[in-house]
Amino acid sequence: MAESTESQTGPSATLPAANNVGALAKVLRLILPVILLGAGWFAFDHWMQPEVREKRLQGLAQLPKTKVIELTVVDFEPQIETSGVVRAHNQITLTSQVSGRIVATHPQFEDGAYFEEGAVLVELDKADFKTAVASAKSQQAQALALHAQEQTRAKQARLDWEDLGYEEEPSDLVLRVPQLRAAEARVEAAAAQLEQADRGLERCLIRAPFDGRVRQRMVGVSQTIGSGTSLASIFAVDYAEVRLPIEARQMRFLELPEEASDSPVKIILRDALDESNKTEREAWIVRTEGALNEQSLDLFAIARINDPFGRESSKAPLRIGQPVSVKVPGRPLEKVVAIPRKAIRQLSRITVVDRDSHFISKRMVTPLWENDTHLIVRDESLVDGTLLATAYLVYTPDGTQVEILPDPSPEGEPPVATNGNDDKTAQ
Length: 427
Fold this sequence. Notes:
By secondary structure, the protein is α+β, with helices and mostly antiparallel strands. It has helices spanning 2-9, 15-48, 50-60, 127-163, 177-202, and strands at residues 65-70, 74-76, 79-88, 91-95, 100-105, 114-115, 120-124, 205-207, 212-217, 224-225, 230-236, 239-246, 265-271, 280-288, 299-306, 323-329, 333-340, 349-353, 360-364, 367-370, 374-377, 387-389, 403-405, 424-425. The longest helix is centred in the middle third of the chain and has 37 residues, at 127-163. The chain is elongated and about 175 Å long.
């Protein structure tokens, strides 16, 4: 029995212990290199690079940095930029009132030529009209002679009635009143016919109805024309007009004339085709149209340009059909501040820095006016001297202290606002 017990507790009993020792050895072989590497890195970081470690610790303690601008409360005049096309205020098709053959055209009757009011532009053959005048004069003379005869007969009839001794008043038939009235009517008809013949002769000379310019000539010498034939397209040159669309959301910023007695609004025109052309022309908005455009709901303002072709001054001429860009001054916005766009975060959020403690606070602003560079806002909390952070401060809640960096650029001043495709107004 003793031998049996020894055989069960001998070699087979040592197997679990051997297995545990082997597993522990494997774990130690895996962990020991990691422990050695960590200890080496700690020693290297602690003794071999003290300067790097000190800088890293200092960097972890640094405050967020930002540049600031100082806001100023001002009165700001927005300028709405729009565009239009120069057009003649009076453009007509010159026509003939009589028929005939063209015998001459004058040098002023050429494409682009200027002409003065009353200048003869086209001459028609006068032969037939002179004949008509002579015939009318002859008929008038005959009518006057017959009228004189009837007057004599009427006087003689009254004398004869008186010689007969009748006491009652003679009748109209006795005094030849109907014959006298017929003679007077023939005289008036002859005079009217002569006047008509004279007008026809005068209309052989087709004159300019106003000071203007020929846009396109349509007839030439030896051409036979009829009454109402189009001779040329002409337009007046005393002043020109520009039709300017104003968006509905911009109207509240403008004071435009509605009545003839309202003061005109001065505007500045620039060439919209050549951006390098810095020439400016003055114009005045004198009226607005009485209805909004059905498609765009824009209101159109009409601006007048005096002396558009520079005939009375040394100004560069404008051309009919030339596109121009226009800046319309708006109603001043009082007590507002201009905020640069680079200081605006999403949803019109800005960051204000306390002047003494350098703690930040974030707030929302509602723009009254905006363009590509600035937002114009009115906010009672934004007073003169308020510091506005321009850096994008990530993960910095209200109350975070920041370090202010110097920035000498005066970005807080109000911009020269323009509108059109760039500027926007608050809806």
